[in-house]
Please model this.
Amino acid sequence: MRLDLIRELLPEYGIPSAVLGVLHAGQVTEFTVGVKDVSTGEAATTDTVYQLGSISKTFTALAFMQFVDEGRIGLDDPIRAYLPGFSVADPRVTAELTARHLLNHTHGIEEAFGDPGEGADVYARMVSAIAGAPQVFPLGETHGYSTALGYALLARLMEVLDGRSWDDLVRERLLTPMGLSDTSTWHAQVDPARAATGHLLRSLDEGPIVTPIPHLPRSYGPAGNFTATVRDLLAVGRLFLDDGKAPDGTRIVSPAALREMTSSRVPIPDPYMFGPEWALGLIVCDWSGHTVYATDGSTIGQNARLRILPDHDTIIAMVTNGGPRETFYQKVFQEILSTLGIPGLPAPPKPNPALALDLSRYEGVYERPGTRYVVHAEAGRLHLTLGLDPMQAQFLGKPDHLRYDLLPISETHFLMPPTDPLEDPQTVALYDFRDGRAHYLHTNSRVHPRTD
Model:
């Protein structure tokens, strides 16, 4: 592939560095471009470790499936059988919530766990903290991404089953047997000399600046705090090509566990941003008729991507210390796919100007704590207004409210063009018209119920 293309794209997108890994037909190739910290100018290498964000959830799902393999818990067992102190506001959820709901993001529990601290007992504290947590949606009714809570509950289940702390059991049961010596589960384990620094971008003229938040809280551990080299990330993807075996032949999970992870799926209301279905710790995509498994992650200033293409015996991974930018990822991965002779990414959706919609069905307020969308019609067109946290808006130099057009793709899906050159197009789903009006807004995998 053309490394000069990536060198040209990095400044265009304000991303300091990118490390790419490709496994194709059994051969691994790694590429590195850029610096791991703009304040030092030190070059990134293939040994630089990056924050993986929500790709952590794939590691956690694999660790959980080991317990399923051992017959110590079932995916459809009520978790209260193992966590008798678990409860939330909805008694049905308290009684019926399962690991499958947690793995595929259909549990619907609001992320109302407060600040459980940075101690080793953080996941036990989170279980206690959500005793009165409300539902965003009824159990199993729709897909709605859980940033931290769902996988923290899985971590606590594993702690109770194993008797060790989450960080210890994952290292002993998953990371060490896989040979992932460059992977860590929380920031205190990371060697600062090897770590990339996260960066944010307020303007291309200013260029990327070091993030003021170097890492996520420990409560995000199972859902977002893994750090690794691109080499270790490829090894995780390789499990899905090698029937659950590590590169040295060590059995990590059974083929049956991998089949369950990839075949147990729920539809994603907005299928365009990442893919049409969510499995157990993975997104399921369709690229030119071929199934591709995807997992992405972001922290505040770093981004990671992993794509597993079983039909082509190929895995592609990328880590950056800037972003996320969808169009950057698309251009880079399209170049890799073209070089390998593999069909490219799906074309982005286009609006359908012929659609005649009753705009009043979509108008309303859709919100959750910290996020508020107002959908409104004006001059025969639909618009969305997003309120920003005032401190975030001030830091980024943005107004408190951002207004976007919503261009219909179908009766339930809309294209949201960017209003800023530092943004990419997004898609939005407005759906569930049980009483004639949309009940949910779904974008970037997250669901927001109508509240007006």
